[in-house]
Amino acid sequence: MSGEKSVSSFMEEKFLPIAARIGTQRHLLALRDGVIMIMPLLILGAFTMIIAEFPSEAYLNFMARTFGENWNAFSGIIVNATYGIVALVACYGVTSSLVGSYGLDGTPAGMIALSAFFIVNVLQSATIGEESADVWMASTFTAEFLFTALITALVVGEMYRLLVQKKFVINLPKSVPTAVARQFTALLPGVVIMLVFLIIHGLFALTPWGSFPQFMSDVISIPLRGFGTSYPGTLAAVLVEHFLWSLGLHGSSIIIFPIFEPMWIVNLQENLNGAHHILTQPFYENGVWIGGSGATLPVVVYMLVFAKSKLLKQIGRIGIVPGLFNINEPVTFGLPVVLNPFLMIPYIAAPTVVMTLQYIGTAIGIFPYCNYMVPWTTPFLVSGFLMTQSVMGVIAQILSFAVAFLVWLPFIKIWDDRNYKTELQEAAA
User: Fold this and answer.
1) Cβ atoms within 10 A of the Cβ of 314, count?
2) What's the CA gap between 130 and 127, in Å, rounded?
3) For the chain, give me the number of helices (H) and strands (E)?
4) CB of 323 within 8 A of CB of 358?
């Protein structure tokens, strides 16, 4: 017991301050906010595809007879209007959030970031009918260019913040309405930012890459995504996320949402176009998070059914409904897992084993690819079917549940016995 306390004290003194600073780092928070902004679009697009491609021959035949052979043409239109603009939405969202974190108005900065994003992208020549025109390719606005959008957003946000704080703005009389004045505040910073990105556009046109987005793709995005969506990269994500949670910090917001999720979203969109990436956003957030971070739903079931101590029984009753929707704060802070060296072991080990099982099962063709975005709060088992459109997705979740249960079992049983004995001693006293 004293050993556990010394380990807990060591982590609290050495790791917690560093991790807390990382958790409040404004650029990571801005990336998280920007990525979260695109989630509704991805979910809407995914549900559209589920409706249009539901894996039931009887359903598809019924819809074709009722509404005509082209009844599902709406799917492509909505997908283009959701998945097709995620880079633009993220670019605006990251800049707006970053500038807002400095106490400034982020709306005009977000608009300038969109302009800068268009400036660095290269127009293509296309023939429309008998006329030729300069156009931006539709892929420019998709997740394919998400990394370019995120880098642009961060750079624009910092430039805008610096110029405004240095008073490089047009000051209007106080009698001018605020809505008008703040647009003039953005005027001079906008001119400088656009000129800088125009220069970037021209300089990269002289390089072998031909453009800044192509440079980002070849030098940064593809190599980074190659690691971040591999098994070792995802293993690192699991370990770091859950270690941070064990310190009481929101590991998902610190490491998953701003860093790994953009890569998984790119994989998801490529899978829709015929690629076969194992690691996608639903693979992790609906497959590895069984009941939330730590794969804690099996623990809740154990506490609800088998626990002897009053504490664990109560946590089981409180945690079962949230756990079905991947919300597990009652478990993380109630057992507690936070700063508990004993329970940190299964809390980190269970999702690691689940991720490994899911990865290997998908790689050898037993489990289907997770190609359909669903909210991370989608109930367990329901999400398994929706994200794969296959019963095998449900079976994968059942097997993962069983494996996580076995990982947690010896630890939660010991913890239950320890609390039960403590409760008996307190009752006797």
Assistant:
1) 14
2) 7
3) 22, 2
4) no
Same domain, 191 and 263: no
Same domain membership, residue 196 and residue 77 = yes
Distant-in-sequence, close-in-space partners of 181: CB < 8 Å, separation ≥ 6 = 172
Residue 5: inside a domain, yes or no? no
Report the number of distinct structural domains present in the chain: 2
Residue 73 and residue 117 in contact, taking contact as beta carbons nearer than 8 Å? no
Q: What is the 3-state secondary structure (H, E, C) of 202-262?
A: HHHHCCCCCCHHHHHHHHHHHHHHHHHCCHHHHHHHHHHHHHHHHCCCCHHHHHHHHHHHH
pLDDT at 154 > cutoff 80: yes
Q: Which residues contact 366 (CB under 8 A, 6 or more apart)?
A: 392, 396
- For 135, phi then psi, to 5°, come to -135, 155
Q: What is the pLDDT of residue 427?
A: 85
pLDDT band at 341, cuts 50/70/90?
A: confident
- Predicted confidence (pLDDT) at residue 264 exceeds the cutoff of 80: yes
For residues 261-284, give the mean pLDDT.
Answer: 91
Q: What is the mean pLDDT of residues 270-275?
A: 87
